[in-house]
Fold:
Amino acid sequence: MLDLINVSYDTQIPNNVGLSEDKTVLKALEKWHPGYINWWNDLIPDKFQQSLVYLRTAVSVDPKGWAKFDYVKMPEYRWGILLAPQVEGRTIPCGEHMGKPAWQEVPGEYRNMMKRLIVIQGDTEPASVEQQRFLGKTAPSLYDMRNLFQVNVEEGRHLWAMVYLLQKYFGKDGREEANDLLLRSSGSEEAPRMLGAFNEETPDWLSFFMFTYFTDRDGKMQLESLAQSGFDPLSRTCRFMLTEEAHHMFVGETGVGRTIERTCQVMNENGITDPYDVDKIRALGVIDLPTIQKKMNLHYTLSLDLFGQEVSTNAANAFNSGIKGRFLEHRIDDDHQLKGDTYKVWDMVDGKLVQHEVPALTAINMRLRDDYSRDAAGGVGRWNKLIAKMGVQFEMKLPHESFNRKIGVFAGHNFDPEGNLVSGAEYDAGMADWLPNHADGDFIQSLMVSVTEPGQYAGWISPPKVGIDNKPGDFEYVKLHMA
Amino acid sequence: MTRQIDFQTDPSQYRHWRVEYDGPVANLYMDVDENGGLFEGYQLKLNSYDLGVDIELADVVQRMRFEHPQVKVVIMRSGKPGVFCAGANIRMLGKAAHGHKVNFCKFTNETRNTFEAAEADSGQKYIAAVRGACAGGGYELALACNHIMLTNDSTSSVALPEVPLLAVLPGTGGLTRVTDKRKVRRDRADIFCSIEEGVKGQRAVDWRLVDEIVPNSKFDDVVLQRAGEFAAASHKADVAEGIKLTPLNRTIGEDGSLTYSTLEAQVDRKGGKVTITLHGPDSDAPADMDAFFAMGDQAYMLRLARELDDAILHLRLNEMELGLWVIRSQGDPEKFAAHEALLMSNADHWLANEVLKYWKRILKRLDVTSRSLVALVEHGSCFTGILAEILFAVDRSYMMEGEFEGDNRRIATVTLSDANFGPMPMGNDLTRLQTRFLGEPESVGLAQARMGEALDAGEADDLGLVTTILDDIDWEDEIRIFLEERASFSPDAMTGMEANLRFAGPETMETRIFGRLTAWQNWIFIRPNAVGEDGALQRYGTGVRGDFNKERV
Ligand SMILES: [Fe+2]
Ligand SMILES: [Fe+2]
Structure:
């Protein structure tokens, strides 16, 4: 157990920010740390807290240091504060201050805007851990359980990273916001998380994989744009977080892929060629492809909502002030200030869907969302290759961005997954095919059984191609604590 | 923005508000229709408002008093998740002409004052139940309520972000109510008004910005519980039912002249003036308040009030170039006195009280009307009691003295009543006569001693109740010259001069809102730092910040 009285921050909190010499942050962290530990301990079931999990810990930012694998009890995980190395002579990459030296301190005029962005990002990190808190009990294998916990501890570390920025650069207000990050909690009636999608429970493992594929990818896009920030400490923090985020999406993509693979395999073994023969497929204990498509429709569209309004003043302000850039800003060939540029956004005019050009500065959210959609399409293509390779006639498809939206211009209108405006009756009738219903949820839930034998997997999912840290197939990724 | 704006509406036409009545408690939901803006070119997102939204609110507040006197507590809340109200719509403000902005702010100020005073005036207490963002004009709505409850969900806050966000002021009473009503310490107020994200949770209570914070999961219950407690503790008498406020009988002529059942407004575009003639009662006063109640909104005193109120609003918003208002009256002064006396002697009857309080508001509306106001006390006029109060609201009054050739109307008189000595105070909390005689308080007593007498021109002049008395020989010429002179002056200088001269005496929160805060806001509203091409208000939403001229003026 971590000794909270005598924390040696340079050994217990791996960091490259000179933590033990930073009196201000140390003082703040000492107050915050116990609350964090309580949060963690209350969250994860005790059985798992005591288990030894084969986790990757980042102890430094160089390639050798950021992936140290070993067994560790999660409460003793070393949540580090690690910033990507400082780039000599880095300048503000976009907006009205472009070309000036990157800020090492927060400029007073942007303090509040920056704080708000960090708080919103910070709020999502612990939220997903909260959403996934019960999944350990139904892990389809020790391998998957370990991946879940790896994602969880890293989201915890991301919270640390945001809290560090708040405490280091935003004074008293920042410390208060850091405390509030532990006060809010996912789905709470008392103090819910800030963004709607982060208040929904992740009820089953397919949802978890979809979440890490689609929703963590929203996180990736947000981090990518914050990595372009003219505020150097924020940029460096996010750059390092991105290395971990990649693993979360790997868990998502391979998780969905392994589910698909298992379904196709079982179909083939039983001579089922029609992927829509749902009852027969389900009777064999695997998740039919149309249901997987429905889950995808849901998670993709929920994630699109996280990008906010298509046309946004806040996003324009953040870009123009150099606090937030675009996806891969440095690879974009333009003035990086968007003077006079326009960008195509969707709009509803007289009940019809139209695209028109708006000042590009105001369409920063829309552009990031478009980048997201392209990014998200990659994995879908690979799932389809897998399906084709297994000889099943089925294609996964991302729904049109207008479908099932609660935020932005599409909200409040009935679109089908193809992007056609349909009548209320058509919409209701189509719903059963478009989004998972309670019966689908019940079925998936019925497959969620815990498998804790090393090398064994629940019947609805295939084993991975390779193990974590190149471990063999029967490796015991979690040494479960038996009370 | 040249379309005519109509201030009349009714619940069947509401697009932005709805009210659910539950005995003594009314739940007032703000649920602004994004696409229901009064003008083209902006969407009313996040419960932001424009004049159209506020006209409905004013109607709600007015009907609450007359149609729903059972109500003792009104809970103002949002019908939208995640946001209480984001304030005045910024794109609307950015697009609006200066004159529209000023008129918009004046009207919203008057509406806020009205529901703020509803508790003291008629025992209707307003609670702001704030969940979600409550910023700028949104918090100003809450500030005008009598009790503010904020959910403690670690996200919801109250904020006045105008200065950092838009380079303008929280000008609808915001700055003033923070210091004068909520009595927030000035240095804390300084911090509060300079931060965009506002203040939440316990600090909002500690800083006196809200009255209480409530755990989020219990919010609705506690709000209802509090409303129940307030209703139980209310001294407002139980009233079985209210009266209906039916649509006004108004016609607008081709030249813009207005005709109502009790008054008309004759437009003279060339002369830049409008002549408003108020007609005395066409029948005897109702025998008692039961008879008055039975007549409802057709009772003369209420009908005249509603019609005059509508005329003032219409002329203020739609006829900006008619800078000179000439107010006349014609009718039987004794009959008017009888109508007024019924209300004054039954002031504890809920409906009499509401009508009198309504007159108080209308006279205040006149006080803050930025037009040159002149009253002509002609033969056949009925400037009695409440109507005589108009003589003390205007900038100048002229009275006919003696017989006029060929004029056989009843000789001009002015009659004072109890209404002139207390129940119709100005924003400075003094009566108009007290304000008029600030340097000679004994004159108020002298006038009071003559209450009930029909004072002719000589007597009225001696008592200082009118500006100038003129006989048959001088009347026409003097009046013409005055009107022509007045119309020739700079409208800006007139507005400024009149507003300064009208409010002698002590400052109150109300005078500070209309005088100090509004004046500063209107100044900022013409400065390039806010409204110039590169100003913050114009650039809002583009992502590019306002470019400020750093010179302090
Ligand atoms: Fe993360
Ligand atoms: Fe993640």
The interface with chain B takes residues 96, 112-113, 115-116, 180, 183-184, 189-192, 194, 313, 315-317, 319-321, 338, 359, 361-362, 364 of chain A (CB under 8 Å).
